[in-house]
Structures are given as C-alpha cells and as structure tokens.
Amino acid sequence: MTEPRAQWKSKMGFILAASGSAIGLGNIVMFSSNAYKYGGGAFYLPYFIALFLVGIPVMIAEFGLGAFTKKSFPMAMRQAGGRVGEFAGWFAILNAGLITMFYVTILGWVVGMLIRAIAMEDVSQGFAPGNTVWSDLIRGWLPVSAVAIVWGLNILLVSKGTKTIEMAVKVFVPLMWVAMLVLVVVGFFLPGGFDGMQNLFAPEPEVLFNPDVWRGATSQMFFTLSLGFGVMTAYASYLPDHSDHSHNAITTSLLNCGFEWIAGVAVFAMLFAYSQLPASGTLGMMFTVVPSGIAALPFAVKIFGVAFFALLLIAGLTSSISLVEALVASLQDKFQMPRGRTLAICAVVGFLGSTLFALPILIQVPAEGGPPGEAPIGLMLLDFMDHWAFGYGLILVGLVECLVIGWGIGAQNLRKFINQRSRFQLGAWFDVLLKFILPILLTLLLTFSIMDQDILKETVYGTGITTADGAGLWNSLVEWSPKLILGLWVIGCGLGAWLLSGATGADLDDRAVEEEVAEIQEEGGLL
Ligand code: TRP
Questions:
Q1: Which atom of ligand 1 is nearest to the CA of 226?
Q2: pTM for the full model?
Q3: 158 within some domain
Q4: Fewer Cβ atoms within 10 Å of its own Cβ: the N or the C terminal residue of the chain?
Q5: Which of 100, 94, 104, 30 is nearest to 358 (CA)?
Q6: How many domains does the chain have?
Q7: Cβ(103) to ligand 1 under 6 A?
Q8: Residue 310: inside a domain, yes or no?
Q9: 317 lines ligand 1 (CB under 6 A)
Q10: Is residue 165 part of a domain?
C-alpha cells in the first residue's frame, strides 16, 4: 500500500481507544455475575492470578506484535509464523466476528431498553422485580431495527479509522467512568449498600479447588481485556515507532480491571440493598436484576434507568468498533481493498448475523429440572454461539498466538524489541511464560473444559430444543440448530481462515521477520 499507515494522534488517544475496547458489557455485569457464581471474594484470587499470569503478558505480546510488524493481526501472525500463523490470525478475526454479531444483538436489546426507559412514565413500575420488559422486548421485532441502528453507529464511528475512533473515545470513555463512579457513590449511601459491597469480598476458599472457577477466570480475562480478538494488535500497529508497549499494556489492563472492580462494588451494593441476589447469568443480570435494583432506588429512578442503559450502550460501542476496525484493517492489509467498500461489506454481513441472534420466533426449550419453557430462537442460538466462540475460541487463539509469537518471532526477540522502547524491562520470565508456561496451562484448561462440558456429556451443546408442534421442516431445522451453530463456528472460522490465508494478497516478504530479528540481535546481545 502506498498510503502511509494511519497513526494515533496521541498516546492518550491510543490508551483511550484500547481501554475503550477492553471496557465493555463484560465489565459491567459479567464480573459481578461470575464473582457471585464463583464464590464472592474467593473469585478475586484466580482472577488476579489470571490477570498477572495471562492477561498482562498476552496484552504485552499482542501490542508488541502489532508494533513490531506494523500489520493487523492475520498479516502480523503471518510474519511471525508463516501460513500457519496467518491461518490462526484469520481464525481469530472470524471467531471475534461471530462474537461481535451477538454482541451487537445484545447492544440492540440495550437500545430497546433505553427507548423503553425514556418513554416509560414510571420506570420503577416497569423495571420492578418480576418485570417482563426485557422478555417482552426480545419477543418482538423492534430489536431487529435496533440492531440496524447499532451497526449504523459502528459504521459511523469507524468510517475514518483512527481519526473517528479517537474522536469517539475521547468523549465516551471519560463519560463511562463518570457514570460508573456516580453509581458507586449512590450504592454506597443506600441502606444496606455497604454490607452488599462487603459481600463481594467475603471469601469462600473451597471454590479454589474447582477447576471450573479457573476456567471462568481465564475466559473472563481474555474477553474483558479484548485478547484473542486480534484487536489489540491492530490498534498497536497504528502507534508511532517509539511507544512504550509494556507501559501501555499495564495501563490498559489496570484501567480495565479497575473499572470492573468498581462496577462490581456498585452492582453488589445495589443488589444487596434490595435483596436482589445476583444469582443470574450475565444477560439476566443486565436486563432484569440490575434494572429491578434501580427501580427500587428511593429517588431519580428514571435518570438512573436511562443512565444505566446509556452506559451499557457507549461501553459496548467502544468495544464493538475495535473489532470492526481490526476486521477492516485485516482485509485492507491483505487485499488492499478501499476502506469504504470493505466497511460496507463487513457491516452488511454483521447485520445479517446479528439479526439471526435477534429473531423473536418462539420455540420450546427443555428446562433443567422443571417444566419446559419457551424462548426466542435468536436468544438460544446466541447462547450456543457463545459456548463455542467465547468459551473455547478465545482461549484457543490465545494458546496458538503464544506459540506463534513465542517460537516464530522468538519471545526473546520480541522482548528485546519491547525493552528497547520501555521504562519497565521485561525479564527472561517473559520468554518462559510465552513459550512454555502459557501454552501448557491453556492446553490443560481447554482439554479440561472440552471434556467436562462437551465430550463427557455426549451431546452437542444446546441439543433438545423443538418447536411447539414438534413437526415439519421448521421443527427439523430447530432441532438441528445446535449442530448448525457448531458447524457454522468450525467451518466458518476454520474453512474461512484456510481460504483467506491461502488467497493471494499483498506481497509479503516472509523473510522480513528474520531480517528484523537479525537486526535486533546485531544491536548488542540479548538481554
Ligand atoms: N472487552 C469487551 C468487554 O468486556 C469485549 C470485547 C472486546 C468485544 N472486543 C470486542 C466484543 C469486539 C465484541 C467485539 O465487553
């Protein structure tokens, strides 16, 4: 490409964009929901270990890779690990694309709730415990239009690449912090709120012996820090040459986790004040439990109802645009397509996918232990895709990227490149971590969870849904949908990545990395 690569205007712009990508829906409710599920205060231990052992080192590696190659993820991985690397790179981008499709669907529901909250006369009635606002919403067609709005916003914010992204995050990210701090202060002064906060810190150490808790903490870490999406590499490829990558990675990670802890405190305070135990999955937490807590506030219910959904929307948008940018940049780096057209194609495909997950047609789901219930098909498909793309995809990508970077570029070479520009010097531990410890650890985690959650269960995740009358073509399609989603994930990401990595694109000198590495080594021995 003859055009020079775009650059962030300032270090601040980059940090805002990277932390805006990291801080999203996952920070506001997923952390609290996991912390409750996995034993309150005890969850902090695996979470902290995952942050320092996996999160920060992988973030340094993803930033380093982008800065070292000045390429978005697939081409950067190609430079590091040849065709295999590029395959893994596209796999990551496509897997993240599937996650973005349902992430935008959830944002569509957020828009729907926001509209309801604005229009509602008395939010405290509408959002009260037992309310059906959300379940009514997802049983209608409004979310499909809302999904179109969210994709429209994504197009707008990514249209001029770093320029528009930087403009958006300068407004949105500080706004998110203010909104969150206000929620904490309110939570603190609620009757019983302080006790609720303490619940978050009450340890239940038995849970530490449950391997599922460690898997939960690790997946949460990848998702919340936007690792394994190929996003951080794309963002770092727009940095000026002499940026301090270790410092950037640590700042971004701590900003993200700081936000998450504050959100946890706010949510726990509010829920315990109103005896709304957060015993609910992420979606239930976001759309019913927290709104019921807000409905019971003694004052300003409407303002908080509207503010909560507005917060979710802007936090989610600054995350989704990061993947849209990473995807567009990847296609541009490979095929040198014009930006506008690339963005339009991605948005149309993304919109169709998000629409699938927003489909309100009702089907029968087997309820564990109870009578079967009804649910919209879109919601079920979303849950199945989440199981594969989020549950396994991100850790799988993390595993392969550690191997490709650790052995392809050579962790010691990347470390040297980073250290030359950094105040904080990475030690040899970084190499050992990237080359051995993380690959072994992530392989163990993946093997454990695939055995535990899939292979030993002997059925495809989600099997058992049917239509009301249980007959006809539509019924067969519904019954087959868990397998179709698994197929879409495997074939969409696997075959897609194979085709894209095999296609002829930009001339890439596969020897470039060897030369760069040689140069690094010449400039004095390894540290
Ligand atoms: N980190 C985000 C969160 O915590 C998730 C996320 C990151 C994301 N990048 C994304 C979601 C790209 C969709 C698309 O919520």
A1: 7
A2: 0.94
A3: yes
A4: N
A5: 104
A6: 1
A7: yes
A8: yes
A9: no
A10: yes
